[in-house]
Design a protein that fits this description.
Radius of gyration: 13 Å
Number of strands: 5
Order of helices and strands: EHEHHEHHEHE
Shape: globular
Number of helices: 6
Structural class: alpha/beta
Distance between the termini: 23 Å
Largest sheet: 5 strands, parallel
Length: 111
């Protein structure tokens, strides 16, 4: 399967809007990748919880077939686990899955 993981670690809204969400959405909508997973890691977990425009865009991505997941440890530290889960974001510990992606040399875009 043609699968891409996007690791979003930059909490700049412009970067999210003009690169992360745009590429993730078009990757699925235009069939560039069969499966796209957006991983929210670090400070973007707090941005997601605090920003309705980010949440709205994430709902659009999920409706378009992008899987959205977040680092549970980060979400715990920011106190936003329940906020992310209410949004429909999968919240898991990402250390092991990320390591597997790297060891398997799977496509990974880090922003």
């Amino acid at each position: 399967m043609d699968k891409l993981t996007i690791l979003w670690t930059n909490a700049d809204f412009g970067t999210f809007e003009k690169m992360v969400s745009m590429y993730a959405y078009n990757s699925r909508a235009k069939g560039w990748w069969d499966e796209v997973t957006l991983v929210i890691w670090g400070s973007p977990t707090k941005l997601t919880a605090d920003s309705e425009p980010v949440r709205a865009k994430l709902r659009e991505l999920m409706a378009g077939g992008v899987k959205v997941s977040a680092c549970k440890r980060c979400a715990e530290e920011y106190g936003v686990v329940e906020d992310l889960e209410r949004l429909g974001v999968e919240v898991i510990y990402w250390g092991v899955p990320l390591t597997e992606i790297l060891k398997n040399r799977e496509p990974l875009l880090t922003i």
